[in-house]
Amino acid sequence: MTSVDDVPHGSRSVLLTVSGVIDETPDARSIEFAVPDELRDRFVYKPGQFLTLRIPSDRTGSVARCYSLASSPFTDDRPKVTVKRTLEGYGSNWVCDNLAVGDTVEVLPPSGHFTPKNLDDDLLLLAAGSGITPVISILKSALSQGTGKVVLLYANQDEASVIFAAELRELAAQYPDRLLVTHWLVSLNGLPSVPQLALAAAPYLSYQAFMCGPGLFMDAVHRALDDLGVPRSHVRSEVFNSLAGDPFTDSTPVELSDEDAADAATVDVELDGEVHKLSWPRKQTLVDIMLAKGIDVPYSCQEGECGSCACTVLEGKVEMDNAEILDPEDIENGYVLGCQSHPVSDYVKIEF
């Protein structure tokens, strides 16, 4: 029996019990969690979001890893993450080798912005390998709750490596007029090229595009959609990095002088339809000041590595300590990371 600890390491994390383990392919497993009634409100999630798991490590005590929820909040009883082994991937191999029903895992609440604003939209979903995990959550949710058409292009090495193959067949049969699934097998067709991806996506230029997969696949999809003239505002991508910090430990507030407080900017932050007017000292990040005011701001790593706190600057100007996870086009469109942002102008307006 595996247990990371008897109590959580911070105020935001909880211990969840593994209620199911499913072998999806020879190198991918799904882990289902039982969520107690008293924690259900904290584990309400949107399609495409992820969980952050605390994984024990002999060298560092623990590591934090983000895994997408492959379940749908509308069609599945319990949240489920799906993990595929990666070469020398400590976290993925530990999960696949060790977790069993009855084990406990320390988990942060759902997070992430890789989710449709409107499930009635027509969706073009492009996935490769384990990139299917957030994509199938979106797919199942849109079919269950929405009215639009859903097109999935799913690339894998071979037929044996197709995660959720049976489930996708069943959904295609259940929604023949709304769901089109196209599989791309590298063993038969080679790696999908930019022209081939553009040809596959060309009939769906008006659709909202969501992509997730290895870096080379994502780069090729981006170039294909750019060549087709699809605006970046219609394209969402999900990228996960191994988190270097410890998001499970509560952060220490930055100490401010009277001079720091006097030089603070003013920010209007819109979150979940509510606007908060706050004083924003320039040494503090946006996430810091929102947490200090007891606002339930979305965040996970506070290192600029996961994208959970991505938001949009509508007015004013900010600077970021670390913005590597954002594309240049995202930054041009006003996207910033709340955990890395400091005010430059005296007034800033931000929307989550």
Automatic annotation (TrEMBL):
It comes from the Bacteria. Residues 23-114 form the Flavoprotein pyridine nucleotide cytochrome reductase-like FAD-binding domain. PROSITE patterns: 2FE2S_FER_1. It catalyses: androsta-1,4-diene-3,17-dione + 2 reduced [2Fe-2S]-[ferredoxin] + O2 + 2 H(+) = 9alpha-hydroxyandrosta-1,4-diene-3,17-dione + 2 oxidized [2Fe-2S]-[ferredoxin] + H2O. Residues 270-343 form the 2Fe-2S ferredoxin-type domain. Keywords: 2Fe-2S, Cholesterol metabolism, FAD, Flavoprotein, Iron, Iron-sulfur, Lipid degradation, Lipid metabolism, Metal-binding, Oxidoreductase, Steroid metabolism, Sterol metabolism. InterPro entries: 2Fe-2S_ferredoxin-like_sf, 2Fe-2S_ferredoxin-type, 2Fe2S_fd_BS, Beta-grasp_dom_sf, Cbr1-like_FAD-bd_dom, Flavoprot_Pyr_Nucl_cyt_Rdtase, FNR_nucleotide-bd, MRET. Its cofactor is FAD. Residues 125-220 form the Oxidoreductase FAD/NAD(P)-binding domain. GO terms for molecular function: 2 iron, 2 sulfur cluster binding; 3-ketosteroid 9-alpha-monooxygenase activity; FAD binding; metal ion binding. Its EC number is 1.14.15.30. Pfam families: FAD_binding_6, Fer2, NAD_binding_1. One of its GO terms (biological process) is cholesterol metabolic process. This is 3-ketosteroid-9-alpha-monooxygenase, ferredoxin reductase component. The lineage of its organism: Bacteria, Bacillati, Actinomycetota, Actinomycetes, Mycobacteriales.
